[in-house]
Amino acid sequence: MQDRSFVPFTEEMKKDYTILVPNMLPIHFKLLISLFKANGYNVELLETTGPQIAETGLKYTHNDTCYPAILVVGQMMDALLSGRYDLDKTALIMFQTGGGCRASNYISLIRKALKKANMEQVPVISLNFYGMENHPGFKLTPKILHSMIYAVCYGDLIMSLVNQVRPYETNKGEAEALADRWTEKLGTELATEKIRYRIIKKNYKAIIADFAKIPMVKTNRPKVGIVGEIFVKYSPLANNDLERFLIKEGAEVVVPGLIDFCLYAIYNSIMDYRLYGKNRKTYLIWKFAFWLFNKKKNDISKLIVEEGTFDGWTEFDKIIDIAAGVISLAVKMGEGWLLTSEMVELAESGCSNIVCTQPFGCLPNHICGKGMMKPLKEILPDINIVAIDYDAGASRVNQENRLKLMLANAKRIAEKNSEPSETYGETVAAL
User: Is the distance from CB of 129 to CB of 140 less than 8 angstroms?
Assistant: First the structure.
């Protein structure tokens, strides 16, 4: 049933409205912003930080609301209350996957906050692929969708290379500066040029080659993976700039890409048909989408490996196989089985130190993340996992102290164990 406070974004609004986007993945979202601007939308990425974001969110949502929702609402309301925007010419947009958590409820929470602030005229656009709401002035055309795929691919590639270079670069800041240059260049290309896969792959190679040229001094740093609820995992605002903190403490950070989450969401639609008979009419479309995204990911990984400087990515089919060995593929609320599988995959690929980021009280994360820590430690004795709760009332000092303890344990385990860890086959056989 459609929200009674629903205000559609009309075709007339497209001409002179500013659309505000909450930030989650800085590189990816900057690429998407360029893409939407080229298609006639005046879109602006909100990059505000600071304690006032959470404070504003708490003012306009219930304090039991999950932390990502508090931050999203807070960032949007902070912008609208700043006086920088004409409220009669401003809209908000929220990315949704159609799931049961943030993906379904945030739109209503945002509209409730707008009502509380007497801003009900501000449209809230739901960007989704499930037809959840109709906004005549905001349409995902085949051209936009095609370009969005490569925005995700480019974003994942740059994010992965920055994380592999930043801890070791001789000239601090060089990797991030290069990422900014490529993000600007690729955003312009996606916005203005016709998509040709030959050119896309040429760009992949050039990006990899440019990052490989950055002078580095390889030191013995422990690898630390970051998993968890998607917003807290990726957003520096939500996780207190976790990646930068871990690097400062002597670690190399490994963050699974957004492509994997997209593949997870697509695969769940396939499994809905296989398990419950749902999506009969769209089953073949989901299968094709899964094949397409899988191929795009594997093409990038192959080019990374061929260059020889950086680590490639694990095929998603293997991530599915890993999950099938430890948790049911029917567990798909929130990050679901992907969260558990990512932890095993990280450990199997040589990154046995893992930070599980979760909003305080997030049921799916407490089950598939924190709840799976004990069984994972039984089959992977050397896995070193710490679950960190993020909330408006959480102590940053306590979070960082727990992270430091995890890193100290990582160094102790590395000194104790010089033998290689179990192979994936041995791990599954142990179940």
Answer: yes
Block residue for tokens 């040589």: 350
Max mean pLDDT range (2-6, 239-243, 406-410, 416-420): 239-243
Domain range enclosing 70: 13-133
DSSP conformation class of 241: S
Count the residues in the chain.
Answer: 431
Read off the DSSP letter of residue 106.
Answer: H
Q: Quote the DSSP letter at residue 99.
A: -
Contact criterion met (CB below 8 Å) for 76 and 46: yes
Closest residue by Cα to residue 223 from 262, 185, 197, 249 = 249
Please check whether residue 77 is in contact with residue 113, taking contact to mean a CB–CB distance below 8 angstroms: yes
CA 274 to chain centre: 27
95: helix, strand or coil: strand
The two three-digit tokens of residue 160, written as one number: 């992965």
Rounded (10°) CA dihedral 252, 258, 263, 264: 80
Q: How far apart are CA 299 and CA 181, in angstroms?
A: 23
Distance CA 90, CA 264 (A): 33
State the Cα–Cα distance between residues 66 and 233, nearest whole angstrom. Answer: 14
Q: Provide the CATH number for the domain around residue 35.
A: 3.40.50
Question: What is the number of domains present in the chain?
Answer: 2
142 within some domain:
no
The pTM for the full model equals 0.91
Choosing from 94, 110, 133, the residue where a domain stops is 133
- Cα dihedral 268/289/293/38 (nearest 10): -120
At 237-256, the pLDDT tens digits run 999 999 999 999 999 999 99
